[in-house]
Specification:
Elements lengths: L2 H8 L5 E7 L9 H12 L3 E8 L3 H13 L5 E5 L10 H8 L2 E2 L1 H15 L9 E5 L2 E6 L3 H24 L1
Parallel strand pairs: 1-2, 1-3, 3-6
Antiparallel strand pairs: 4-5, 5-6
Helix pairs in contact: 1-6, 2-6, 3-4, 5-6
Length: 168
């Protein structure tokens, strides 16, 4: 079946999503990236079932991620932050340990699109995505610009199609 046929069949599918901000400094008042993710998902007709902020600690990230992956009412998780190269950035390692099926194209496309905006610094992005059980998981950088790029160009447009594929 052609991609457009898949998209037509997937049209209107909505997700129930957990949004996780990974940061040692952000608070609910300063979590602009989490707010952007929430707003864009709701505007697209999806439901954000829960939004959390956790410290950049593997146990904290993994604990919340595992909780959402195990919930039957959560179809996807979007994490923001902790994806860089700094010693404390552990989100990608935590996420990758849980992925049954990595979606390599997500990171590749994110870096390609980032290149258009920030040039060679895009190589430092470790954005990733995949499937953990039946839950879609996306990990994107913590900057609001990176979040807007990932959400508007990749996640929101393709989420109904991804849900259709996972549920088929």
């Amino acid at each position: 079946m052609a991609t457009q046929e898949h998209r037509n069949q997937a049209a209107g599918r909505t997700a129930r999503i957990g949004v996780l901000t990974v940061s040692d400094t952000r608070t609910p008042a300063t979590d602009t990236s989490g707010r952007v993710i929430h707003r864009l998902l709701v505007q697209a007709g999806h439901e954000v079932v829960e939004r959390q902020i956790v410290a950049d600690e593997p146990e904290a990230i993994g604990g919340q991620l595992d909780t959402w992956i195990q919930r039957s009412d959560v179809n996807a998780v979007v994490l923001t932050g902790g994806t860089g190269l700094a010693r404390r950035d552990t989100t990608i390692e935590v996420v990758q340990r849980r992925l049954d099926k990595p979606l390599d194209g997500f990171g590749e496309l994110f870096r390609m699109l980032s290149w258009e905006q920030i040039g060679p610094a895009a190589m430092m992005s470790r954005a990733t995505a995949g499937l953990a059980g039946t839950t879609l998981v996306f990990a994107v950088p913590g900057s609001s610009a990176a979040v807007r790029l990932a959400m508007s160009r990749l996640i929101v447009p393709e989420l109904p199609h991804l849900l259709w594929v996972v549920r088929s």
